[in-house]
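Example S7 (structure tokens).
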């Protein structure tokens, strides 16, 4: 189930999506959840995906499920 969450400053957000794909040589389709992190410079600025943070979050997950209720800023520390 996809969801989006914006932090209290309104400048950072994350989006969780579920992707279903099928590897050519396997019978059953596989499902994986992904988190994408977005940020913007100000309340009227456009949203941009923070690609580096999104990749780091996927690497940290390493295929294991993390809680969907973790704080929004944990993976996007600079």
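Recovered sequence:
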């Amino acid at each position: 189930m996809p969801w989006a969450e914006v932090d209290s400053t309104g400048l950072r957000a994350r989006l969780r999506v579920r992707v279903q794909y099928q590897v050519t040589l396997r019978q059953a389709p596989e499902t994986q959840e992904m988190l994408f992190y977005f940020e913007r410079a100000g309340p009227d600025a456009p949203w941009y995906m923070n690609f580096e943070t999104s990749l780091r979050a996927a690497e940290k997950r390493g295929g294991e499920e993390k809680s969907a209720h973790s704080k929004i800023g944990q993976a996007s520390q600079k």
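Notes on this example. Residues 51-61 form the longest helix (11 residues).
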